[in-house]
Specification:
Length: 472
């Protein structure tokens, strides 16, 4: 592989907010011109997006490294290839997805044809966070393009190198009449949210999710909110502990724990808790060596604020493994905490960093009760060798998604909708579900004019009323 290009230090991202209303109006005019409705145009834009990722992937990966030391493999897999795969899938299935969907017509309405026609919404806004800054900006864009929309993109200001690279690449590759990218933070996002969009797709925390929804409500704009939360991971005594330890440690410490669906904490059957903790320690050493700070496969915490927050969470904690930290390069070792007290701050908010609290439970019922007493999580994991336990957990809990005997993998299947429920969000995407999110399902019925009995019109006959009442 060629060496990654070096990335210039990027300044704090900003955009000229004064031009926002004019640009949104231009996109609206482009949409009104009908150019985005053509399937050829959509395919071409998706292909151009794939080209962007293929030709400029090295630069994107270098920016992700400059922002928070994202390991090359993780950057290619989760940010670059993941989006390219979504774009390719949408391109391949576009004709099928956009085909009018025939549905049955009730007998009394016949002769008639009924169908659902997918139409684009118009101009949509995508607001992304920093943890997978490419995937979470461009993967929703795939759905927006496939459905035939114009889009405004707002990358996170926290990953400034990635934001700068994307703001250069997007207009270079995609149709500038239909797509715009505005860099910046709160001021820019606030100015964008004052505009009327036809859909707002926001990924990030629930506090800002509420700000987004309130702003969208003023225009009666529908929203998709991809939020976070504390995703629990239940480990039953019947689980294969070697596999569980590897898959949990991978899902937790990928991206240094800064993954919305990372297992936030473990609920482990008391009979296997000690063995699992030992195995997790071995796995972490196997993954990252004795000093993970030296490992090119281990990311950094994104900024000083989050580093200080995570270090604060470890105050007074019973650290079973890790805990080493360095503020100067925002390093925090993969850390396991045991004997967590119910009032510990580790159990309050989403951890969103490389700290894994382990809680002991007597059985799976106690684990389910623990989960159900809290807000609905984005993901829920269960490791078990028992189908009964699997079924009990799936039926006894509510979450955005469930993955059994694995972590994060359900996200990679484009046939599964990805999204939250309750506090973890609303709406879903990935694969065809992204296309649906950015489409309006228009009902269309065409009636034949050959048969039009007068009986159905006023003045209504007694017979008609009698016939109607028989349907009760
Ligand atoms: P962030 O700070 O980058 O914010 C996200 C976006 O909101 C940014 O574009 C930012 O500019 C904008 N923003 C911030 N404050 C704002 C304000 N006051 N008004 C308007 N816009 C504002 O990212 P974050 O929120 O720290 O992201 C982490 C959270 O996102 C975690 O809770 C994580 O679980 C969640 N997340 C969810 C998913 C998912 O797919 N469900 C994916 C990744 C992250």
């Amino acid at each position: 592989m060629t060496a990654a290009p070096s990335i210039e230090s990027a300044p704090e991202p900003h955009s000229n907010v004064a031009i926002i209303p004019g640009r949104v109006a231009q996109l609206r005019a482009s949409f009104a011109s009908g150019r985005t409705r053509s399937l050829d145009w959509r395919r071409e834009q998706l292909e151009r997006l794939e080209t962007l990722l293929r030709e400029d992937g090295e630069e994107i990966v270098a920016a992700l490294k400059a922002d928070f030391g994202k390991p090359d493999f993780e950057a290619w897999a989760a940010d670059v290839i993941a989006v390219a795969g979504e774009a390719k899938l949408a391109r391949k299935h576009l004709a099928r997805w956009t085909r009018p969907e025939k549905v049955a017509t009730p007998l009394e309405q016949r002769p008639a044809r009924s169908r659902i026609v997918r139409e684009p919404l118009g101009v949509v806004l995508v607001i992304a966070p920093w943890n997978y800054p490419v995937q979470l900006l461009l993967s929703p864009l795939v759905g927006a393009i496939a459905a035939g929309n114009c889009a405004v993109l707002k990358p996170s200001e926290i990953t400034r190198h990635t934001s700068a690279v994307l703001s250069r690449l997007v207009p270079r590759h995609l149709d500038p009449e239909c797509f715009e990218i505005f860099e910046g933070g709160v001021a820019e996002t606030t100015a964008l949210l004052e505009q009327r969009f036809d859909h707002v797709f926001y990924t990030g925390n629930g506090r800002v999710g509420r700000v987004v929804m309130e702003a969208a409500a003023k225009h009666l704009t529908p929203v998709t909110l991809e939020l976070g939360g504390k995703s629990p991971c239940i480990v039953d005594e019947s689980a294969d502990l070697d596999v569980a330890a590897r898959r949990i440690a991978w899902g937790k410490f990928l991206n240094a724990g800064q993954t919305c669906v990372a297992p936030d904490y473990l609920l482990v059957h008391e009979a296997v808790e000690s063995e699992l903790v030992t195995k997790l320690g071995e796995v972490i050493r196997g993954f990252y060596g004795d000093d993970p700070r030296q490992s090119p496969h281990y990311a950094r915490v994104v900024d000083d604020r989050h580093h200080a927050r995570l270090v604060g969470l470890l105050e007074g904690a019973e650290i079973a493994q890790g805990g080493e930290r360095r503020a100067d390069d925002r390093y925090l070792a993969p850390t396991i905490v045991r004997d967590v007290k119910p009032d510990s701050p580790l159990l309050a908010d989403e951890i969103f960093g490389p700290i894994l609290p382990v809680l002991r439970v007597r059985d799976v019922d106690e684990a389910i009760a623990f989960v159900e007493a809290r807000e609905k999580p984005l993901a829920l994991y269960v490791f078990t060798g028992s189908e009964d336990v699997e079924q009990k957990v799936v039926e006894g809990t509510s979450s955005g998604g469930v993955c059994v005997n694995a972590t994060l993998f359900h996200l990679g299947n484009p046939n599964l909708p990805f999204g939250g429920v309750g506090e973890s969000g609303m709406g879903a995407y990935h694969g065809r579900h992204s296309f649906e999110t950015f489409s309006h399902r228009k009902s269309v019925m065409t009636r034949s004019t050959r048969f039009d009995p007068k009986l159905a019109y006023p003045p209504y006959s007694k017979l008609l009323t009698r016939l109607l009442r028989r349907r009760l």
